């Protein structure tokens, strides 16, 4: 059995699958990263992905254009972020509760909306057609390289975009004035406001960006990964993103690595569940277990650091 | 004066939030339905009545169904109340409901106790098991400072897969088409309180008893007191000499136990076999209820009734009209957002505070002036 | 620019906070262009409030501000910055993970190609200004990694880069080592040469003598006077600072001290800024006496109290009550030893704001047998206890169920004190027990403290209010820079003498200081 497993993992198509599976998690993780950098916990990523997955798909279906679908999903994601921001920053709803509300909308509200718009229940069924799916591209030259070509070429455009966004997010956070403000606000809001940076504005920007990232993830799910929308499709990816962010120490590159870890765990699950005598459910636990273990290791490190200084334990 | 003004303000604000949420629902009903007025009628008064050509008559079975639906969500509402009271954002109630239901169900099938104690033992073991499960996020929080929110969210999915694994590989009844356990033994089934098929079981009494117990626990015992003080100000609790870590663990364990009890009562009361394949959602509803009840256990049944009523209304709308049942999630989310919004109508609240404070300050000034002269 | 030109004038500034405390009362304050002007006064004298008003952090209730002769209103720090006023806060307003250059350009980052930060330009700007003002910093270092002294330079640069001509420095030397202080003074003098105006808030007389041109002394929310630094002696400054306004006298009998209750031995502690906050402190407190700790805030009192209550761990040394060590013990155990504690920060440690009065007065004893029957509270006993305490300590309220946060400051403190004084403590640590509360509550709390000590409790009173420690204490210990500067047990002390010890003008011999301990 182990041999079987190794055989299937050590193939190019496994690593190809890892990249494909990582992409939506990575989008959401980047969303968690930018929000967290500004000191905002976006627990609504899960619901945002569900809602944007639906709208992305529907818009693509109505316009018969996958590009408009993706843009629509991103826009809806940003609007949901702003809505959370409005409730949390303006009306002072606890940001976690605002996120939970978005998740509720994502769980049931999407089914309602789908029904309202199309009369369908629970999934988009036969609305799907090739021209509304995100196309894959084969990269010239690279696709000629054996193995590497098989792994890297032929992905959906958004898969490449996800990894490109890691770099863009890094540029945004570390090379632009907006990013500087985001980091300053998240770390010491008083310092930022004492030099005239609007803390509120910066937080709105961050959470809208966070929602937009989740929008990419949602569009990827319904317009490529699952080839249609269904009510159980996000399956905790938004929550995993929060953990990936924490494990990646909130940095774009670190978070990409932890996203890849979850992607790998997920891909492993698909591989293993095909094998005889292995419980797909136990394998399905792996990403979540890995998350908890990662978080525990991270926390142990943090606790050690804290103990070094005998500072008054302000709780 | 101030207290009473503020109390009234709180009630008015809650009512406004609910009205607003229902307003949002109405908009969606008008957007989605061909017969919005009928739908609205089903949502608002339908849950308790039967519409006939001759008029409207009270429908007792509907009431029983609403009360029955309150059972699991009262438990999860209480669970969240206890955990939020200690300021613990543990969201694993969902997974505990499932686990409790599963353990209760398995014991209902395989335990051999030839009396009503069968159900009691099954529920209690499920309850304890879920308390133990909650030790995981609680200990990780207290010992390592790992956010209970993230670990509890992950725990939900771990529990879901673990339960599904055992269901599929150990306990599935292969003679059935769908994945489910063998039927529960009759002794394990929670008896009904009323005739008919409403599923209003003894579980309802248990839910009310749990409400009373939790209310007593939070407001009449030393542990509940410590939980609430930690929730208000952890530094204060520490400085007062309370066992902060232990109390935080206790609050989460109790949360797990209540969720597990709710899950097992639901499974053994509503079904003939265990057949959940996915997280049932009661844990999340519990959060809505705790928010509606303002973390006060005494109000939890009220909030649960309200949600169950709306749920029934949504169900009727989807049965007799063309409004999907998931309307309930939109209503819930809207209630949630407005109800939890501290600054909702804050302009008015601010005026109230300023007015009262000014009155107080004038009195204070007067007394200070007198005091100052005495000592100058 | 004429050297005598007034760059900032504040006229008739009054500030009454919403809680009724009048922090400034008709204060006149003015600064000449190109001078270093000291603002000095005891804690609570109103210096900080005055400077917050000047920097736009607080709005004055009355009064006007003139900058270069023109009226100005400051609704936010941005307004003040645009008028050329910059402030270096005592707690630095820096973002630790950003580099020095990034901190300096935060909110005004130079751009390249429209979108990106021109980091090179930020570094260049930093370097240029660092050269110009002789404030040497490492532009590429992360603020988290640099020394406190350099952080301060970054703060000063931040203000200068934003065009500040007037710099407010709030106790800048409090966090610096001696060498860093020497460096800072050189830099400040150089800035003065270049025509900058500096307002320097400090408690340290030697620094003020060395650095400043003029001095404004504040006391009790008012300005006591403006002096040329050269024409006033340290003794005179001290006398102006600590002169008495309202004297609350408390009747008290002669103390009859008994056994040693608290023994503190050779405590050493380095605080989170790497400063030696406690440097070998040894003293005892006996039953039946009140030992007062006087001193300007920030000389180690805070750290001492935290260590005694298990909130910090010392590098070295011990503190024992009845022979049992308090070091690093859980608070429950410390309380079980008979220690009670009136915390300085009552809103954080003293109360649960949204809890009821009852819930707040029982927080240290709710688990006692007399309040519990089996698993349940004996509500009647709890009600009785809290009603009694409300009565005993004259807490002005409608009912025991009233939210504590809704009470006035004085009544909140009465709630804290009611709890801490009523648990039959053998040692009471009272940290600033009457700060910011009304006269009635102050009197009641002081009287109770004396009563308890005469009934046999040991009392350690820490207070920045000199009147309070002098009035209440049976013996007095003065803290200066983490050490005991003097100890007195003859009751023959006055404010002038105390001021000299508190401000480091005088220090007793080691032998005399040794009398603080009876071990």
Keywords for this structure?
heterotrimer; B: 376 residues; mainly alpha; two-stranded antiparallel sheet; 14 helices; 2% strand; C: 519 residues; alpha/beta; Rossmann fold; 3 domains; six-stranded mixed sheet; 32% helix; 26% strand; globular
Notes on the structure:
The complex is a heterotrimer of chains A (about 325), B (about 375) and C (about 525). Chain A is built from 13 helices and no strands. By secondary structure, chain A is an all-alpha fold. Chain A has a single domain (about 1-305), classed as ABC transporter involved in vitamin B12 uptake, BtuC (Orthogonal Bundle). Chain A starts with a helix and ends in a 7-residue tail after the last helix. Chain B has a domain at about 70-310. Helix content of chain B is about 75%, strand content about 0%. In chain B, strand 1 and strand 2 (about 55-60) form a beta hairpin. In chain B, helix 1 runs antiparallel to helix 2 (about 35-45), helix 3 runs antiparallel to helix 10 (about 245-270) and helix 7 (about 200-220) crosses helix 8 (about 220-230). Chain C is of the alpha/beta class. Chain C has 3 domains: about 5-240, 3-Layer(aba) Sandwich (Rossmann fold), CATH 3.40.50.300; about 245-340 and about 425-519, P-loop containing nucleotide triphosphate hydrolases (Rossmann fold), CATH 3.40.50; about 355-425, no CATH class. Helices cover about 30% and strands about 25% of the residues of chain C. Chain C contains 18 helices and 24 strands. In chain C, the strands form 6 sheets. Chain C has a 6-stranded mixed β-sheet, sandwiched between helices. Chain C has a 6-stranded mixed β-sheet with strand order 18-21-22-15-23-24, with helices on both faces. Chain C has a 4-stranded antiparallel β-sheet with strand order 2-1-4-5, with helices on one face. The chains are: A mainly alpha (about 325), B mainly alpha (about 375), C alpha/beta (about 525).
């Amino acid at each position: 059995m182990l041999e079987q497993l190794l055989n299937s993992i050590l193939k190019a198509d496994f690593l190809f699958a890892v990249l494909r599976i990582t992409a939506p998690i990575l989008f959401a993780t980047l969303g968690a990263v930018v929000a967290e950098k500004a000191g905002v916990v976006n627990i609504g990523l899960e619901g945002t992905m569900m809602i944007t997955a639906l709208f992305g798909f529907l818009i693509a279906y109505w316009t018969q254009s996958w590009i408009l679908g993706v843009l629509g999903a991103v826009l809806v994601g940003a609007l949901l972020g702003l809505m959370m921001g409005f409730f949390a920053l303006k009306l002072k709803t606890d940001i976690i509760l605002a996120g939970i509300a978005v998740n509720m909308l994502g769980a049931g509200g999407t089914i309602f909306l789908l029904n309202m718009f199309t009369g369908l229940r629970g999934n988009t069924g036969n609305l799907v057609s090739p021209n509304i799916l995100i196309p894959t591209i084969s990269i010239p030259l690279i696709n000629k390289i054996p193995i590497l070509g098989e792994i890297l070429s032929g992905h959906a455009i958004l898969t490449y975009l996800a990894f490109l966004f890691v770099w863009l997010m890094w540029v945004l956070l570390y090379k632009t004035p907006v990013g500087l403000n985001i980091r300053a606000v998240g770390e010491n809001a008083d310092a930022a406001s004492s030099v005239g940076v609007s803390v509120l504005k910066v937080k709105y920007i961050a959470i809208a960006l966070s929602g937009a990232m989740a929008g990419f993830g949602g569009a990827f799910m319904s317009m490529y990964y699952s080839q249609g929308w269904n009510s159980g499709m996000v399956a905790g990816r938004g929550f995993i993103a929060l953990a990936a962010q924490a494990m990646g120490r909130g940095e774009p590159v670190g978070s990409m690595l932890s996203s890849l870890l979850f992607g790998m765990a997920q891909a492993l699950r698909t591989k293993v569940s095909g094998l005889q005598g292995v419980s797909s459910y136990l394998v399905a636990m792996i990403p979540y277990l890995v998350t908890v273990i990662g978080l525990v290791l991270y926390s142990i490190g943090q606790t050690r650091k804290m103990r070094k200084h005998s500072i008054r334990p302000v709780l | 004066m101030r207290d009473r003004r503020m109390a009234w303000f709180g009630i008015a604000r809650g009512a406004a939030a609910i009205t607003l949420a229902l307003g949002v629902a109405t908009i969606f009903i008008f957007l989605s339905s061909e017969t919005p007025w009928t739908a609205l009628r089903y949502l608002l008064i339908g849950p308790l009545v039967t519409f006939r050509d001759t008029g409207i008559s009270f429908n007792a079975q509907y009431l029983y169904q609403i009360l029955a639906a309150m059972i699991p969500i009262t438990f999860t509402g209480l669970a969240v109340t206890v955990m939020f009271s200690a300021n613990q954002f543990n969201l694993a109630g969902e997974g505990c409901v499932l686990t409790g239901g599963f353990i209760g169900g398995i014991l209902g099938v395989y335990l051999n106790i030839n009396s009503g104690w069968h159900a009691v033992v099954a529920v209690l073991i499920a309850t304890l098991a879920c308390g133990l499960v909650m030790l995981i996020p609680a200990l990780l929080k207290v010992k390592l400072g790992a956010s209970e929110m993230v670990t509890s969210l992950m725990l939900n999915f771990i529990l879901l897969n673990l339960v599904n694994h055992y269901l599929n590989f150990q306990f599935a009844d292969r003679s059935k088409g769908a994945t489910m356990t063998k039927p529960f033994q009759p002794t394990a089934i929670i008896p009904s309180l009323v005739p008919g098929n409403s599923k209003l079981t003894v579980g309802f009494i248990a839910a009310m008893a749990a409400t009373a117990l939790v209310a007593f626990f939070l407001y009449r015992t030393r542990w509940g007191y410590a939980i609430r003080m930690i929730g208000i100000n952890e530094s204060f609790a520490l400085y007062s000499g309370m066992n902060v870590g232990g109390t935080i663990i206790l609050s989460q364990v109790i949360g797990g136990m209540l969720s597990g009890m709710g899950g097992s009562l639901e499974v053994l009361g509503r079904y003939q076999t265990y057949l959940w394949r996915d997280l049932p959602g009661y844990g999340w509803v519990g959060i809505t209820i705790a928010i509606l009840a303002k973390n006060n256990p005494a109000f939890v049944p009220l909030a649960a009734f309200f949600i169950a009523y709306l749920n029934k209304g949504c169900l009727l709308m989807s049965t007799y009209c063309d409004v999907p049942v998931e309307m309930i999630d939109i209503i819930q989310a809207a209630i949630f957002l407005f109800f939890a919004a501290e600054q909702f109508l804050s302009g008015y609240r601010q005026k109230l505070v300023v007015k009262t404070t000014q009155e107080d300050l004038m009195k204070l000034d007067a007394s200070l002036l007198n005091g100052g002269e005495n000592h100058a | 620019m004429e050297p005598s030109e007034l760059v900032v004038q504040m006229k008739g500034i009054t500030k009454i906070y919403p809680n009724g405390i009048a922090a400034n009362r008709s204060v006149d304050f003015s600064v000449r262009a190109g001078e270093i002007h000291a603002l000095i006064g005891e804690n609570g004298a109103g210096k900080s409030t005055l400077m917050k008003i000047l920097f736009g952090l607080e709005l004055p209730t009355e009064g006007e501000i003139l900058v270069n002769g023109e009226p100005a209103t400051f609704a936010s720090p941005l307004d003040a910055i645009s008028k050329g006023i910059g402030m270096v806060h005592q707690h630095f307003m820096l973002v630790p993970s950003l580099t020095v250059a990034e901190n300096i350009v935060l909110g005004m980052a130079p751009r390249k190609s429209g979108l990106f930060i021109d980091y090179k330009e930020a570094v260049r700007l930093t370097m240029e200004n660092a050269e110009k003002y002789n404030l040497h910093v490492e532009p590429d270092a992360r603020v988290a990694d640099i020394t406190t002294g350099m952080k301060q330079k970054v703060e000063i640069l931040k203000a200068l880069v934003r065009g500040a001509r007037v710099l407010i420095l709030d106790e800048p030397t409090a966090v610096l080592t001696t060498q860093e202080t020497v460096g800072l003074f050189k830099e400040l003098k150089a800035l003065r040469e270049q025509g900058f105006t500096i307002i320097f808030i400090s408690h340290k007389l030697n620094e003020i003598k060395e650095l400043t041109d003029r001095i404004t002394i504040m006391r009790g929310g008012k300005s006591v006077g403006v002096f040329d630094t050269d024409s006033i002696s340290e003794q005179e400054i001290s006398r102006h600072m600590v002169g008495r306004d309202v004297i609350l006298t408390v009747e008290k009998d002669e103390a009859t001290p008994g056994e040693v209750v608290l023994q503190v031995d050779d405590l050493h502690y380095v605080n989170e800024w790497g400063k030696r906050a406690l440097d070998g402190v040894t003293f005892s407190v006996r039953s039946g006496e009140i030992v007062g700790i006087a001193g300007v805030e920030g000389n180690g009192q805070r750290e001492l109290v935290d260590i005694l209550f298990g909130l910090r761990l010392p590098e070295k040394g011990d503190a024992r009550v009845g022979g049992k060590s308090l070091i690093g013990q859980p608070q429950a155990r410390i309380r079980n030893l008979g220690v009670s504690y009136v915390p300085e920060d009552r809103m954080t440690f003293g109360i649960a704001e949204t809890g009821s009065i009852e819930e707040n007065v029982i927080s240290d004893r709710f688990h006692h047998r007399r309040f519990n029957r089996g698993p349940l509270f004996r509500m009647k006993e709890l009600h009785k206890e809290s009603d009694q305490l409300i009565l005993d300590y004259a807490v002005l309220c409608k009912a025991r169920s009233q939210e504590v946060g809704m009470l006035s400051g004085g009544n909140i403190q009465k709630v804290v004190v009611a709890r801490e004084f009523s648990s039959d403590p053998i040692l009471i640590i009272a940290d600033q027990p009457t700060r910011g509360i009304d006269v009635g509550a102050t009197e009641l709390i002081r009287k109770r403290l004396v009563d308890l000590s005469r009934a046999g409790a040991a009392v350690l009173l820490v207070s920045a209010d000199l009147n309070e420690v002098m009035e209440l204490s049976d013996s007095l210990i003065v803290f200066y820079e983490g050490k005991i500067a003097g100890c007195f047990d003859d009751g023959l002390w006055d404010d002038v003498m105390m001021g000299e010890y508190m401000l480091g003008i005088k220090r007793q011999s080691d032998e005399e200081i040794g009398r603080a301990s009876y071990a």
